[in-house]
Amino acid sequence: MKRHGNLFTRITDIDNLYLAYRKARKGKGWQNTVKAFEADLDNNLVRIQQSLGNKTFTTSPYKPKTIYEPKQRTIYKLPFDPDRVVQHALMNVVEPLWDSMFIYDSYSCRQGKGIHAGSLRTMEFVRRNTYCLQCDISKFYPSINHDILFDIVKRKIKCPDTLWLFEDIIYSFPGGKNVPIGNYTSQWLGNLYMNELDQLLKHKYHVRDYIRYCDDFLLFYNNKKYLGETAKIIEYFLRERLQLEMSKCELYPVSRGVDFLGYRHFPRGYILVRKSTVKRVKKRLKELPVKLANGEITSEQYRSSLASTMGWLQWANSYNLRQALNMDALMEVYSNGKTA
Asked: Smallest Cα–Cα separation from 222: which of 236, 207, 201, 212?
């Protein structure tokens, strides 16, 4: 496999750093740290460029934050300046190189892929197979081994300066494990880590109907025994090669419905929104009119929440659910609130 070199001059190019700044500020232009950075933009970009060139850059300390939706987990925040800008600059150059070597049916964090494309692909597999093997990894990001990950990176990249930057980022979290959720690089490093399994299944074992989104993945086949034997291969490879353990490894007929990426997929051709998602949506929509009336949210925030819900529903067979959620009535509340 080709190893890529001569990357660092592209990463530290001032135009690339400007592009990285634009990407890093997206949706965050209101933050004081971003405004302060922009107040002396040119000099700040040069400062970052110089810190990379003379290798005085090092990843800043992390600030942990616990979130509870859709489940409790800890994310780790880094400063906008310089860390978020640097990570975007790095991946501006590396992303297309790594993306080109990923398998077609890897759907996380890739342009043209994502949840909805993955759901449609899952339906293809559901309709032409009898059985599904569904797996996911226990505490995936916190379990990623730094040494194994860096060895994988070194097999893809030979540019010494770029490897210096990756090494600084990968080993920035203490303890020998954990690729922190919240880093821009983490989603790509996680994809690279699991690509080891993808390549094994597709090229050594020639598994046809296989799809992965981050650490959740499905295999389909018409032979139950074959999938059971493949599950043992996967479990062994994950444990011995990647030092990962599965939290779920379930083999079942697709006729019961395949719950993946927030939707339930059925072989007769219909897709339903996952029950737990429906429960959360109902609770959120019930609170929206009250929050709007009390001034806790603006009319645009109200509309944005409704649009987000409709975005989920439009990819499923959801007519009855839309009626049950009273989406038309909720939109009427928005219209009245906006014109009031």
From this structure: 207
Per residue in 12-33, pLDDT (tens digit) is: 999 999 999 999 999 888 889 9
Residue 313: pLDDT band (50, 70, 90) is confident
Q: Would you state the torsion angle of the CA atoms of residues 92, 311, 128, 218, taken in this order, to the nearest 10 degrees?
A: 50
- pTM greater than 0.85: yes
Amino acid identity of residue 329, one-letter, is A
pLDDT at 296 over 70: yes
**How far apart (Å, rounded) are the C-alpha atoms in residues 104 and 95?**
15
Mean pLDDT of the chain: 91
Give the strand order in the sheet containing 131-137.
Answer: 210-213, 216-221, 131-137, 246-253
Question: How many helices and strands in the chain, by DSSP H and E?
Answer: 15, 9
Whether 264 contacts 274, CB under 8 Å: yes
What sign does the dihedral 90-93-95-99 (CA atoms) show? negative
Helix, strand, coil distribution of the chain in percent, nearest 5: 55, 15, 30
**What is the residue-wise DSSP string for 45-76?**
HHHHHHHHHTT---PPPPEEEEE-SSS-EEEE
What is the spatial distance between Cα 65 and Cα 194, in angstroms, rounded to a whole number?
A: 25
pLDDT-derived band of residue 168, with 50, 70 and 90 as boundaries?
A: very high
Residue given tokens 């880093």 in the structure block: 183
Using CA atoms, how far apart are residues 167 and 225, in angstroms rounded to an integer?
A: 42
- For residues 212 and 194, the answer to whether their CB atoms sit within 8 Å is yes
Q: Are 257 and 249 in contact (CB under 8 A)?
A: no
